[in-house]
Amino acid sequence: MAGAGPLHGYRVLDLAGELAVLAGKMFADLGADVIAVEPPGGSPMRRIPPFLSEPEAAGPEDSCYFQAMAAGKRSAVLDLARPPGRDLLCRLADTADFLIESFPAGHLDALGLSYEVLAARNPRLIYTSVTPFGDRGPGASWRAADIVGWAAGGMMAMMGAPGRPPLQVSVPQAFSHAGSEAAVASMLAHLERERSGRGQHVLISMQAAGVWATNAETAFPVLENRSLARTGFIPAGMRRASVYRCADGYVQLMIGGGMFLSTTLGLLEWRRESGPLPKAVATIDFAAWTPDRYTDPGFQVELAACDAVISDLLLRLPKAEIARRSDDSGWVVAPVATMADVASDRQLAARDFYQRVNHPGLNRDLELVGPFARLSGSPAPPARRAPMLGEHTADVMSADIGLTAKDIRALELAGVVGLAGTAVYR
Amino acid sequence: MTGEPSATGVAAGLRVLDFTWFGVGPITTKYLADNGAEVIKVESRRHPDGLRLAPPFASPAGINRSQYYGNFNSSKKSITIDMTTPAGRELVRQLIPHCDVVAESFRVGTMDRWDLGYEQLRQIRPDVIYYATCLQGQTGPRAGFAGFGMQLAAIAGLYYLSGYSPEELTPPHGPYTDFIAPRFGCFALLAALDHRRRTGEGQLIDLSQYESTLQFLAPGLTHYFATGEVARPAGNRSPRYAPHGAYRCRDESGRERWIALAVEDDQQWSATLTVLGAATGAISGPDVGTGPPELAAQADRLARPDETDDYVSGLTRQRNAGELAAALQQAGVAAYPVQNCADLRSDENLQAFGFFRELEQAECGSMPYDGLAYRLGRTPGQQSAAPNLGQHTDEVLSCLLGLSAAQIQALRDDNVLY
What is the ipTM for the molecules in this complex? Predict the structure, then answer.
């Protein structure tokens, strides 16, 4: 079931780069009118891989990154380097409920597009600035890259193997934490604006948003005088994740007591179907696997014995079979899924998660991820494709700013705006 | 809004009855609590939030002394009601008319069995917003899957995309998806509150942590569907940046230090070489600012990532990570030391942002808390410490339900308030 979405009727002026592109996407997903302002030549995000074509031949609509992250937005090409372009942006901001930006510190201020300037014209405006490292420290004007954000927020130091470099996740993470935080904070400000009638300036620190992913590890140095280092594979443990090899990939599970005991016992029972368990395991008194014994050396020996037996069992079984048996038995075992597994997952299929859109510029269909939340009373609108370069410039200029076709044509000739079909990608 | 707007902050006047526990639900409602909403957490000694039992603790350990719990439950109230008792569930039904939002993160069906599901609660309060979150959603064949953010990170494809190679996976730390889903959940909740303001209607929010997490993987999924190419773990490699990774610096206090950096184009490469070469003297003569000719162009470096890494590593090894990051940033190159959690405590940018807080907790006294990653310029709100178990039971029952001290004592004697 789809509708207009709970945020239908609100307008977001999306000036964000990749640091905060997810914020506007979240607004669009719930029905807001999100206008992505692109520079002449097109958004740099149209050049971010992976691509639908060979990278060298990629055109403005070939970036899967852009197709995914700009889905549901409209595109207006506007040159903010020129005074008439900035004037148009001011007039657009007069019609907007939210503005989201992630330019380097001071960039919009220097263009005369600061919060103060725009709020003086439109006091209701919520103006959200996403920064890499905040606005007051030595890094206030520093640059971000996703891997740099992952390092600055503390996650990288805990990921990887000893003796080898700390690691990132192979797809961007830090920017998405920042972008989603910006969406929430903007809506918090909105909650109050609807009472006071006043907008405000909202500021996000990507680094701080990343710290929130560390699972509250930041208090350990204070309370227990220790800080986790990267430790690679951990065979079993209460606070760490475990990955086991199986016949055709990996599964994730934890061996232990408490909430992991039934999974541990279930897997040992599965192994026993093919022959008696080794004595070191068969003689374990699992009733004594209580949390107060987790640091006891004897417990650790028992844990290691179970680990060896279960590791050996899993090696012989395919991932899908382990997952099926676990689902049926209620074990806490998870397949380590690839993109192919996630794309064909029956749980997602049962919920009609993926959504197909047609892209006339590409002359093909694309599959997009579906909504992040199901709202019974104000369902999200159906997925909409990302805009083509300048696709909505003329609409926005005429319907929202009141320019005539002649005005728009003159602005195009002057290079201030770019229109669908004629805007140049470079 | 049903509450008295005595607190400050954007959510003042909003009241939430919060049955959530562990990570996702509590972090979701924390956004409201830290901004002035009255978030009443329902727990019991029989069924406390599991994080109350998890380290780190203010020594000695105890049910009110977990910082792990505290960090996700700042600014909330706590009442203890044993939900397995009919009288306890009746108390909850009486609280519903006073609450704008009900939040829960139980296994699917738990609240229904208590006659406290959305359909039942909307009979009591038609405009209630009911936020239900679980790993894989309220419907579908795996709706009942009970697990944590580690399992979900594997199921959602993040584990496979974490490693030096497909043979050497090293997952992200902790229940990672617990820190992705709350933002999507809170955003949906705030949108539902606005919908209620505009229409008077409440609703049920089904927040699948799986579907939220996949928003982070959206480009890769669109690419897979279009091309059939399965993304593989690629260490610190990037298709866009070279060099791109973590590079060893000089040890500090007997501990490894690393710097993360990403070079986007030839101009940044030239700046990187200048910064790296200037202090070490490793690059001199005609090579200054250009480096090895076979790595001169971005396309060369992207094609030879191992050589590029080796070359850069040779130049960073004797440098101080913090000083080098500052110098590279000064030259326009994205860089930062790889900070561990102790490093974060003294990180100048987090300090300037006012990130870490010390809050007075009722039993423990001053406790370290993570602060906010956002700043609402005009309405900053006020964060306070997490509650003791049942700290606000009497206050809530007398203020909202008008129960007398004797009535409350009777419920306590009957182990309903337990």
Answer: 0.97
